[in-house]
Amino acid sequence: MRILHTSDWHLGRSFHRVNMLGAQSAFIDHLVAVVRERGVQAVVVSGDVYDRAVPALAAVELFDDALHRLADLGVPTVMISGNHDSARRLGVGAGLIGRAGIHLRTAPTACGTPVVLTDAHGEVAFYGLPYLEPALVKDEFGVEKAGHEAVLAAAMDRVRADLAGRPPGTRSVVLAHAFVTGGRPSDSERDITVGGVASVPAGVFDGADYVALGHLHGSQTLTERVRYSGSPLPYSFSEAAHRKSMWLLDLGGDGSVTAERVDCPVPRPLARIRGRLEELLVDPALMRHEEAWVEATLTDPVRPAEPMARLTERFPHTLSLVFDPERAPEASGMSYARRLAGRSDRQIAEDFVAHVRGTGPDDRERTVLQDAFDAVRADEAVREVAR
């Protein structure tokens, strides 16, 4: 069976101040063309269809257009909700939409109930594991302590139990939205850390012929059977080195997997440049970036006048300007934003304790802080579901 694996569309998201809806529409055109021209027999979308729980109308209209076009091709599509989606909103009408061959899997209770498709070699069971917020689903899966590994392991137990009751030779594809150990994150994914742990081991998914992952925005191969497709478009400058693509997979009758990357169209390349302003304006090696979206880091010891205006004369698509002077001031003179850059909420809280008290928190206090942050995240997730 030929399968197209994609994820993390983030419909409605912008890139800095650039509206990406046109680029997202071009990606949908590309997706439909690949399905039609490459003989795709099933499409899987591994979460984060939208960028927010309540998406803009234009994003909903684009999603609706994508569903109609995929249904018109007569190629079954399986989608799960991600941590950016509202599972309940995305899943509205799933039963009716399923009759058109578009199978939305957004409910944790359905993890062990597959979409079963057939090819010349027999049945392929597609199991959709939507993003599982541990605090919200731990009771459903009967786990004592909320954690990503525990709830995903329990969900996979249901998958394996269902698969064991199916005819011998039934192949399986699992869709999941999670941070799996070994994956390389970027700056554009939302933090899903719980209890100080963000990732789960790939071994959680043992037993599946192929695991189609979503969440991380870079296309990655963790094992030959466990892959991230990555986002089809860039959403932060940390993705400057990414090759945006989808996985075109051939699942053999014996469960073997062969994979090919299919590139996605991007409106412009991304470039990160660094140096003193006057050097950046004349460096011939930077000519290749003149039509790219640019993030410029200026290292001038003294901030130059009108740096953005001068940069955009050469690099008209400069979107981000960062200052990192070569003779940086002492830490006490750094801006608040600079002092916090790259630090987690828990690290910031621990630094605050150390600043006020003179000593950092002990192990018991660190646990209290982490539990407090986990409780806030869980409360936010509950309120988002209720919106």
Give a structural overview.
- The chain is α/β, with parallel strands linked by helices and 387 residues long.
- It has 3 domains: 2-263, 4-Layer Sandwich (Purple Acid Phosphatase, chain A, domain 2); 270-328, no CATH class; 345-386.
- Helices cover 32% and strands 22% of the residues.
- The protein has 11 helices and 17 strands.
- It has helices at residues 21-37, 57-73, 87-90, 94-98, 134-141, 148-164, 277-282, 307-314, 336-340, 345-357, 363-386; strands spanning 2-6, 14-15, 18-19, 42-46, 77-80, 102-105, 115-119, 122-129, 171-177, 210-214, 220-223, 226-228, 245-251, 257-263, 270-275, 293-298, 318-323.
- Strands 6-5-4-1-13-14 form a 6-stranded mixed sheet.
- A hairpin with a 2-residue loop joins β7 (115-119) and β8 (122-129).
- α10 packs across α11 (363-386).
- The two termini are 39 Å apart.
- The mean pLDDT is 92.
Report low-confidence residues grouped into runs of 5 or more.
none
Global shape: globular
Helical segment count = 11
What is the total tally of β strands? 17
- Give the CATH superfamily of the largest domain: Metallo-dependent phosphatases
Overall SS class: alpha/beta
**CATH structural fold name of the largest domain:** Purple Acid Phosphatase, chain A, domain 2
**Strands of the largest sheet, in order across it?**
6-5-4-1-13-14
User: For the report, how would you describe the main beta sheet?
Assistant: 6 strands, mixed
Average of per-residue pLDDT values: 92
Helix content: 25-40%
Proportion of residues in extended strands? 15-25%
Named CATH architecture of the largest domain:
4-Layer Sandwich
Topology pattern, helix = H, strand = E: EEEHEHEHHEEEHHEEEEEEEHEHEHHH
Protein name: Nuclease SbcCD subunit D
Keywords: DNA recombination, DNA replication, Endonuclease, Exonuclease, Hydrolase, Nuclease
GO molecular function: 3'-5' exonuclease activity; endonuclease activity
InterPro entries: Calcineurin-like_PHP, DNA_Repair-Maintenance_Comp, Metallo-depent_PP-like, Mre11_N, SbcD, SbcD_C
